[in-house]
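Today's session is about reading a structure prediction critically. Students often jump straight to the picture, but the first step is always the sequence itself: look for stretches that repeat, for charged clusters, for runs of hydrophobic residues. Only then move on to the predicted structure, which in these notes is written as discrete structure tokens rather than atom positions. Here is the chain we will use throughout the hour.
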Amino acid sequence: MRQAIKEGRLSVYEAVRQELATLRISWEEAVRALKSSIFVDPTFPDFVKWCQNNEYPLAVVSAGMEPVIDLFIGHLELPVYAQSLEITPQGWDYRKKESNDKERIISGAKEDGALVHIGDGTSDVVAIPYADLLLAKAGSYLADYCESHHAPFIPFENFNDVREAIVKGKLDS
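Below is the predicted structure for this chain, in token form.
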């Protein structure tokens, strides 16, 4: 599916929708599996506090699913713009919320001033034309895409690196 996305034959949304439609597990089973295999960068909560203390607006804009994001970072009380999910016996129904369209939200945020975008995935490429400072997780799809398309970005390993890039004033605005 990743190749189909790269070639533009399949949207990120449609790829995720197709994959999730095949799942036949309960949310409780999924939570156990997710918690055993996905870990939030331990520097992220301190980064959130740093942004709040410095009055940098921070939001999660994701092609992912609201319940999964809430599971891992809901306690941080950030604004989250993500997609909905309904779990049925026939499969997981991933639904795109047009109000949470990533490109629309990012372009709107750009109108409010300088935009820092932090990402790693296929859906993050929509931020490239809008970001004043683009940070891509080292080794991620986004970093590889930026390199192959000669789009400027700063690689990062963790959110301490992100904070350092912002503090260094690499933002022109």
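Discussion point for the tutorial: The chain has one domain: 2-167.
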